[in-house]
Amino acid sequence: xGESDSVLISKDAAMEYCGGDDExxxxxxxMYAGDDRREELESNYAKADWPAYRISAHTVxxxxxxxxxxxxxxxxxxxxxxxxxNDVTYINEHHKSFIEDYGKVLxxxxxxx
Length: 113
Prior knowledge:
Elements (H helix, E strand, L loop, with lengths): L4 H4 L2 H4 L7 H12 L4 H9 L3 H17 L3 H15 L3 H25 L1
């Protein structure tokens, strides 16, 4: 993932979810920044609770898409599907980098608030 906020979060991509309204976009970013799911994901991963992990990944996928964090949303979708399919190898290979990238997007969202 890139380093700048504009690479991590695309306002242009998010505009379709907030009707082109800057205030709605700002509110969505603020809500996103306050809803850190890393601890939940880490706990589900450590317990190998794939149904719960799938739900957490789904939530991150959807909320990330709504703020224009499409790369993170795509990564969350891949983990969601891997959890659904019980593809533990894929999850093990991608979980750590996903958590790191999620942290970067959360920081970018916080910086935009």
